[in-house]
Design goal:
It holds the Pfam family PAS_9. Keywords: Chromophore, Flavoprotein, FMN. By secondary structure, the protein is α+β, with helices and mostly antiparallel strands. It has seven helices and five strands. Strands 2-1-5-4-3 form a five-stranded antiparallel beta sheet, with helices on both faces. 28% of the residues lie in helices and 24% in strands.
Length: 169
Amino acid sequence: MFCLSSNTHCDSFRDFHSATPLLAAYEFMEISRKDALEFELFESFAHDKQWAFDLNKVKRFLQDRKNSIVITCKNQKIEWVNKGFSRMTGYESGEALGQFPRFLQGKETSSEAKIKIRNKLNLQEKYSGKIINYRKNGEKYLCKVDILPVFDKQNSLVNFIAFEHEVEK
């Protein structure tokens, strides 16, 4: 179940098929902050727990982002991906939902990177790093991943959100 505050307009993330309220915050931020990196913006909203936003206002914003955005439940199963995820990986959203993001990993994915990610998520801390993933067609690619834990106003973990983009080797 995903609902961060009584001011959100959904019963659960999965039912609404939209974005977390922290992403909606982008719509209402000061113009001077819009030049900062996406991840930095969302990180500051997550830190400040600014949740009371209308989710309908960011649905298109998230869906049409060039980079991959993946939202998981607190147990790390994928609940939502944007079109950028499908473009990057070749997997449609229906193929990813309910899976753990590690389904994108393969034989050349660094064990060290996997351990770092697992440790950070278990500690409910942010993770930033690079990892080799694999597309649906088996082609490997290097991506930069930023993962944020998302907490509700009672400071309970509710989701993780990952921002990913492909980088040159």
